[in-house]
Amino acid sequence: MADTTGAATPDTVAVHGDDGVRRRDFINIAAVSAAGFGGVAVLYPLISQMAPSADVLAESSTEVDVSAIEPGQAIKAVFRKQPLFVRRLTDKEIAEANAVNVSSLRDPQTLAERTKEGHQDLLVTMGVCTHLGCVPLGAAEGENKGEFGGYFCPCHGSHYDTAARIRKGPAPTNLEVPEYEFTSDTVIQVG
Amino acid sequence: MIRPIAILVGLGFSIVVLLAFVTGAYTWATEETQPTAEHEFHIAPHAPEGGFAHDGPLGTWDVAQLQRGYQVYKEVCAACHSLKYVAFRDLAGLGYDEGQIKAEAASYQVPGIDPNTGEATFRPGLPTDYFPSPYPNAVAAAAANNNAIPPDLSLMTKARHHGPEYVYSLLTGYDAIPAELTQEFPDFETPTGLYFNQYFPNLNLAMAPPLTTDGQVTYAEGNPQPTIRQMSADVAAFLTWTAEPKMVERRQTGWPVLGFLIFATILAFFAKKQVWSSATPGRKDD
Amino acid sequence: MSFPWAKEYTPANPVMKFLDEKLPLPRLVYNAVGAGYPVPRNLNYMWNFGVLAGFFLVLQIVTGVVLAMHYAADATVAFAKVEHIMRDVNWGWLMRYSHANGASFFFVVIYLHIFRGFYYSSYKAPREMVWLLGVVIFLLMMATAFMGYVLPWGQMSFWGAKVITGLFGAIPVVGEPLQVWLLGGFAPDDAALNRFFSLHFLLPFVIAGVVILHIWALHIPGSSNPTGVEVKSESDTVPFHPYYTAKDGFGLGVVLVLFAVMLFFLPNYLGHPDNYIEANPLSTPAHIVPEWYFWPFYAILRAFTMDFILPAKLWGVLAMFAAILIWFFLPWLDRSPVRSGHYRPLFRKFFWFGLIPVMAVLFYCGGAPAEEPYVMLSQLATAYYFLHFLVILPLVSSFEKPEPLPYSITEAVLGSDKKAVLGENTTPAT
Fold first, then answer.
1. Among partner residues B267, B276, B281, which is closest to A30 by beta-carbon distance?
2. Chains touching B, CB cut-off 8 Å, 3+ pairs
3. How confident is the model over B69-88, as pLDDT tens digits?
4. Exposure winner among C59, C167, C179, C399, fewest CB in 10 A?
5. Is the pLDDT reported for residue B105 higher than 90?
6. Does the beta-carbon distance from C421 to A54 stay under 8 Å?
7. Which CATH architecture has domain B37-86+131-248?
């Protein structure tokens, strides 16, 4: 059971000058720092493993056929495991949306900014209340559309108008419009 | 009291096991064990000439070879073998870009649901889909293959000892029964529907030789000649990748970690020496 | 508890003082693994493995909790979930390989820790309780490791679960209903997988609890040492910190280097290829073996091939469990007044030329197929194994003349000819 510590001789013990102390401190500090660095480095994979995995990040785009939606109707689709509202606005609803003084809004945006050119009647938004993430009512037939005829979130009473802009209640911003494009006149691709 | 009991128990176990030893040894000495053909003529797998690019602690993927191997899988193996843990999006690891992956995925028909009627149907694949199985279920796979279900290939090279070498050897190992075997075991024969292959543990394999002629797969310009050996090596490399796409990343992470640990251990050694130097004013060397 | 010269904890600042008054946790740590724990100054590197085992327990718990975040104990998806971890989860491969190889390293370290105990008779009075708790930890580890190996739901997982629960089927009368009860069915399936997952998550925390008791029991007499001579004076000891923290730190570094080599370059070397084939209840792999750390006990199980009053299967099961349970009685079987194998010539011969080679044979044969000559070899080894612990160990002290012991640890370390040096430097500088 040879032990490497046996190498020290009385001579080395006698050296307790400044130089010896400094060298000792240095090597100990270096060793403890290396251990500390290692410990911190290990945290990186432990933390990043909780971020979305490759299969979740790769959730591909969702295609929605919008041809069957009549004016005044909306459908719910799924995008990234969250509801997506696609709504065909009536002329009256478009007029209502455009009549609002934009600068008076909490999150100022015009209907044109929230839709694609040439498809101003098709409003595509996430069905996720910007307050705390509930699904607002108003997409399905007969649901409460709120005071402004758009969507109404029952959790904490946020009212969205016909352009899905926040008008009343605690939600800070309008319903999010995801990235999407028309792949043909009747099909949109979200994401 | 405890010691006499212990001695009795110890002697008891020992005597019983020694009795078993004596009878076993007697049987072993008196009864000759019959040599079997699979014991004597099974060959351990070997690597293709020059080995694989991914071999060894510094090995990396040969992306061109993986692409060729993928082509072999797709044009030959995929007819019977699934690859169910690999998604089309994973092909990014073979150097394909997003557009190529989309096109590749769309060239496969995967099970889906008719959005209007809800009926089961097929639709073109998306990058998030996994490689579809050639058979709808295990029963269909068994029925189509003389009751031998073609195994999934995703993990094949990890599911066999020396997996990449095994795949390569098996694909190139279809041969006639050697004369020495027939001489030693006159009764040995390969049942109908099975194929003789000395790299398969029991020498008789249900898979018909999948690669039978040079040039069976046409490689793009600039690639080596698609000989049977070349195609086998390529698909073995591809299946090494499917079994562990993170293998190279793993080793490349390993080197700096190992370097750091060795450095830190050397520091720890000197720190330990420093700490102990004051406590050990000389000691007897035991 | 501890020695009169143990340094007392003094809080360095008002915050620590506050804490010390309300919840003296820093004091507890200081007295357990800090400068407040005097340790024999002559511990060799075999004494590193306790701390290393603690490290691997923590590693297993951390990586295990992470893996549980991505796993699902359902027979239809368990195998695919493991592949999901390996392919898609960020650093999932690192977590899984760390956990799998961490289990192996935990057992390596524990076996060295146990055999250190055998050689230096660490089980003897006054440390019987430390030893008993250690055997309990080992049994809990084996149960945990077995259940953990079932979770990936590969072929070895499935058949391991079936064969090991089948051992209980050997018990007369209650055996078969017991096996069905353990599995919650007639073969391993969802019910078994779920309960194994639940218990595999629970038991490590039980182990951690028993480890605390193990350390507590150790601190009452203090650590043993290679001479086996008890601590007599302050010059026999050094404070745990910084002396043994530094030494353990170096030991940890060496083991981590080896661990990194396995983890990054040979992660499947200690595993079995068949476990990358999904469980198939209709087809048994040609050659089923447990994980390597069970091999000696698996060899003992298979060594009993002959019915003799009891059926061979029951003999095997009894012997396998007895092989570990007899360790509980070691403190009372070994009567030699000398602890360390260093000073016991006859015991030492049986240890190095009997027990160690026999364990090597058992390890080797447990992993080999159940064919000759492996069965015969494991039968001879099994016979010696039981003779060693139950016959030789109780009797050897009667025939043995121990070599002269040093008067004290200090004398053993410095040698009597260097007492002059010692006189000037009795207390180690810190």
1. B267
2. A, C
3. 999 999 999 999 999 999 99
4. C399
5. yes
6. no
7. Orthogonal Bundle (1.10)
